[in-house]
Amino acid sequence: MVLAHFGDELAAAVGRCRNPVVVGLDPRWDKLPAGFRQDLADNYTVRAEAYEKFCRGVIDVVAPLVPAVKPQVAFFEECGPSGMVALANVMNYAREKGQLVILDGKRNDIGSTAEAYARGYLGRGSVWGADALTISPYLGADSLEPFVEVAKESGAGLFVLVKTSNPGGGMLQDQQIDGQPLYRMVAQYVAEQSNSTLGQSGYSSVGAVVGATYPDQLAELRSAMPNSWFLVPGYGSQGGTAKDTAHAFDSLGLGAVINNSRGIIFAHQRPEYRDRFGDSNWQDAVAAATEDMIAQLRAETAVGKL
């Protein structure tokens, strides 16, 4: 199935679930519940199989609650070929459960290489079948255009790194060029591409990654990219709060999806859930953390209007 328009599909999914939570699938061996970890931690085939089983278990819990999941490619790549098979299986399983799949690969290159990345990853008809992909802008416009063109053809979406949540991001992103920070120049490019990919929802299929850890810039960039979906990392474990994300949304509670990875999938290790659930009931902890995040966003932002 090819999505008609990712921006519209995301709007519909957020509206259906009445929340914008994206659950990041970032499996880490030392944080898995004890039942998933064997003594063969150095056997990457065993590790990949555990990652797949764990991520399927997370999806079983969150699929009825949230619009999308975001597998992080790196944790699967670390396991070699078996990890990539596990990633493909996880993505297929998420789609079977009705989830949109935002693949966090941060890909980029120029010319035919960029096009190969795009055709390999983007759209339900591609080999990987991702509904959307994160991409880096730092090779310039000729590296982004192939992704945009393939996204248009396939009905898929893109999230361009604009203002990331990590503390070191400012080393490049905040550099002043002709009186404005570099991230504003990237935002201008995203806004231009958004205008060429608008859907019936009023939002485009070319979006931006903007971190919750910089709420002032989040408000600034919402104004600069009014028709772009924002993928907002940094909530939870990186210190971002529901209130910090408030400016990412429009007045109806649309326009942004908020990612939470460790804070949800490893909730059984968090103090507020550990005593109640622990390893043996880790899926109940995932459900509780997801529902608590949804409630916080509804209380602190326009998400309450969905």
UniProtKB/TrEMBL annotation:
Q: In which pathway does it act?
A: Pyrimidine metabolism; UMP biosynthesis via de novo pathway; UMP from orotate: step 2/2
**Which EC number(s) does UniProt give?**
4.1.1.23
Superkingdom per UniProt:
Bacteria
Q: Which terms does the UniProt entry file under GO BP?
A: 'de novo' pyrimidine nucleobase biosynthetic process; 'de novo' UMP biosynthetic process
Q: Which reaction does it catalyse?
A: orotidine 5'-phosphate + H(+) = UMP + CO2
Which PROSITE patterns does this UniProt record tie to the protein? OMPDECASE
* Entry keywords, A to Z: Decarboxylase, Lyase, Pyrimidine biosynthesis
Where are the catalytic residues?
A: K106
Q: Where is the Orotidine 5'-phosphate decarboxylase domain?
A: 20-277
According to the UniProt entry, its GO molecular function terms are: orotidine-5'-phosphate decarboxylase activity
Top enzyme class of this protein? Answer: lyase
One family from Pfam that matches here is: OMPdecase
Transcription listed as a keyword = no
State the family it belongs to: Belongs to the OMP decarboxylase family. Type 2 subfamily.
> Which PANTHER family does the UniProt record give?
OROTIDINE 5'-PHOSPHATE DECARBOXYLASE
By what name is this protein known? Orotidine 5'-phosphate decarboxylase
Native organism: Bythopirellula polymerisocia
Please name the taxonomic classification of the source.
Bacteria, Pseudomonadati, Planctomycetota, Planctomycetia, Pirellulales
Q: What is the primary gene name for this protein?
A: pyrF
